[in-house]
UniProtKB/TrEMBL annotation:
This is Peptidase A1 domain-containing protein. Residues 511-545 are annotated as: Disordered. Residues 44-401 form the Peptidase A1 domain. The chain crosses the membrane at residues 446-470. InterPro entries: PEPTIDASE_A1, Peptidase_aspartic_dom_sf. It comes from the Eukaryota. Residues 1-16 form the signal peptide.
Length: 545
């Protein structure tokens, strides 16, 4: 087996051609038991093996990184919310022991290991990205994801920097435009195109549905209706049509769908919100603070505690008995409407206990929305419980559909124009791309491409104005109120509900305030917050403004 793989790998690299016969691969996004001796030490991600003898790890698909990063014993978990090594090991999806792998070869850094020498930083991304590659270690080893081909000598980085602040967790599987993983699979003849597609699945319900990452195509059974395609545009969020993930959309409305059929908009009239799709982020939505305040006003509910420090770090905590029980619908300017059911954005509080078990507090619901100040708005992984995403690096496009939460799969191979030309000219190629697939980036590229281009200038102006207004307002309103209560414990979130802040202050003055969560033992280093998650990303770099 190994010599054949090596041959394929060399042949692919030498020819620089895709294997036009390769069928799409499917990698499950599912609950994976992290500690072999703890049955309920679950994290949701992609199971993978590294080294020889193999070590089991769990990966998180990461949209913009080119390299894959594997944490070892220096795992940079945030000690103020992750209280022991057990919790850290589970939340990171197990830790690599390089010294125990006979096939591991150390390199000075990720570039020397054969990976991408830099990880580009764009506005909005984790600030620590700027020096992740230059500070990190590198190495190569056998790498195998969910039983697909063993990639021998696969280059990966080992972080030596607390670059992500620890809450995004799991080892990032880089799926960026020059992804070492996608390139390696293509060079090994396993992929005919560098396309990846993602459905996060449905969790926290009686009948959970696993998600999946499909490579080289998409899962037809998991999509409904028309597709919407737009160009990938990498860049800074501000002043450009780009995003650090390459995927910018414009939200024209967000409606709360009450059980009695009423719909109420979270949007101020005549606004639009530019937003980056960031499937690795742990929530549904990060949006200006006013959206959370409007949520409280419309639903007549308020968080009863400071934001979550659990797996849904920075979510808002509500009492399950009175929490809003309706759905939420996003209207994108392209015409796509995505309705996220209540169960997928108001799940029970979930965390990893000291003993490594995943535990729920079902009497508490987490609203998976956080406020941001002057950071870009994002749609995170829970958007992909209800939307299906396909990214095509060769065609430079991304495509969205409504997701169909089906347990069945029907993988469809997609080959872009460039690859299909290569395949046509390649005498070894036997299979031609279907007309449908080849037509797809052209035909539907117009669909949201047009509306994005048309709307972007006007909307950008409105959005900028809204941002500056809110930033100003936020600074003056919320920051001071809650600070006293928070200095008692760790408040990982940016949003401070005015109602909760007032209640906490009153309780404090009456002497009845008590910290509902366990404190981190002997050194309760309080977080400092500036009223936005921005400060958090900056802390990841170890250099606060
Ligand atoms: C992509 O990454 C490889 C290393 O993995 C590097 O050799 C190559 O130059 C990169 N391509 C581009 C376009 O930067
Ligand atoms: C990925 O590699 C491409 C090609 O070299 C580069 O343009 C891009 O900036 C890289 N992305 C990141 C996040 O480093
Ligand atoms: C990968 O995981 C999926 C879902 O669990 C499974 O159906 C499939 O057979 C696996 N593929 C391989 C090659 O192991
Ligand atoms: C709490 O919620 C989780 C996730 O939905 C579920 O698996 C569990 O059975 C619930 N526990 C109780 C006691 O209802
Ligand atoms: C929420 O309601 C309060 C009280 O009516 C009001 O002062 C505030 O402006 C409202 N907030 C938003 C964002 O609508
Ligand atoms: C871990 O601790 C939690 C909370 O104390 C408990 O419910 C759970 O049963 C424990 N798990 C194991 C495997 O002991
Ligand atoms: C996307 O939509 C276009 C135009 O409606 C259609 O021709 C194409 O087949 C669709 N592509 C996929 C991958 O479903």
């Amino acid at each position: 087996m190994i010599p054949l793989l090596v041959f394929l790998s060399l042949a692919g690299t030498a020819l620089g051609l895709p294997n036009c016969d390769a069928e799409p691969l499917q990698l499950p996004l599912q609950d994976v038991q992290v500690l072999s001796d703890k049955k309920d030490s679950f994290m949701r991600g992609i199971p993978a093996q590294i080294g020889r003898p193999v070590q089991n790890i769990v990966l998180l698909p990461w949209a913009e990184l080119n390299n894959t990063w594997i944490y070892d014993s220096e795992a940079y978990c945030d000690k103020t919310i992750i209280w022991n090594d057990n919790i850290c090991r589970v939340r990171r999806g197990n830790l690599l022991k390089e010294e125990e792998s006979t096939t591991y070869i150390k390199a000075n850094n990720i570039g020397a290991a054969g990976g991408a020498p830099t990880e580009t930083y764009w506005d909005g991304s984790e600030l620590g990205l700027k020096s992740l590659a230059s500070s990190g270690l590198g190495g190569t080893d056998n790498f195998q994801v969910n039983g697909t081909q063993v990639l021998t000598g696969f280059p990966f980085g080992i972080p030596r920097l607390s670059w992500d602040h620890g809450y995004t967790m799991l080892h990032p599987l880089g799926l960026g435009s020059n992804s070492t993983y996608l390139n390696a699979l293509r060079d090994a003849g396993q992929l005919s195109s560098r396309i990846w597609s993602l459905f996060w699945g449905r969790m926290w319900v009686d009948e959970p549905v696993d998600g999946s990452l499909v490579l080289g195509g998409y899962d037809e059974n998991k999509v409904i209706g028309q597709n919407y395609t737009a160009p990938l545009n990498f860049g800074d969020f501000k002043g450009s049509s780009g995003c650090w993930t390459g995927m910018k959309v414009t939200i024209s409305d967000i409606k709360l769908n009450f059980r009695d059929g009423r719909d109420k908009s979270l949007f101020p009239p005549n606004t639009a919100l530019s937003c980056c799709l960031v499937p690795q982020r742990q929530l549904l939505l990060e949006a200006p603070f006013s959206y959370l305040e409007t949520f409280e006003n419309i639903t007549q509910t308020s968080p009863f505690d400071s934001p979550s420090y659990g797996l849904h770090w920075s979510a808002q905590l509500f009492d399950a008995k009175t929490a809003f029980d309706g759905d939420i619908t996003f209207s994108l300017s392209s015409g796509l409407e995505i309705r996220v059911p209540n169960s997928q954005y108001m799940p029970p509080f979930v965390d990893i206990e000291r003993n490594g078990s995943r535990i729920f507090k079902n009497e508490t619901r987490e609203l998976l929305i956080n406020g941001v100040d002057n950071q870009p708005a994002t749609l995170g992984r829970y958007f992909f419980t209800s939307a299906y995403l396909m990214v095509d690096h060769d065609a430079g496009t991304f495509t969205l559909w409504k997701a169909n939460p089906s347990k069945t799969s029907k993988l469809v191979k997609v080959t872009d124009l460039k690859t299909s030309t290569q395949c046509t000219n390649n005498p070894a190629a036997t299979e031609q791309p279907t007309e449908e697939a080849a037509a797809q980036p052209r035909a539907s590229g117009a669909v949201i491409g047009g509306s994005v281009a048309g709307g972007v200038v006007g909307l950008a102006l409105i959005v900028l104005a809204v941002f500056f207004f809110l930033r100003h307002k936020q600074r003056s309103n919320n920051v001071e109120d809650a600070s006293r209560a928070e200095s008692l414990g760790h408040s990982p979130g940016g949003y401070k509900s005015p109602v909760y802040a007032q209640a906490a202050k009153d309780n404090w003055q009456r002497g009845s305030y008590h910290v509902p969560q366990e404190l981190p033992g002997s050194n309760p280093v309080p977080f400092e917050f500036e009223g936005s998650t921005q400060s958090v990303y900056e802390m990841g770099d170890g250099q606060r403004k």
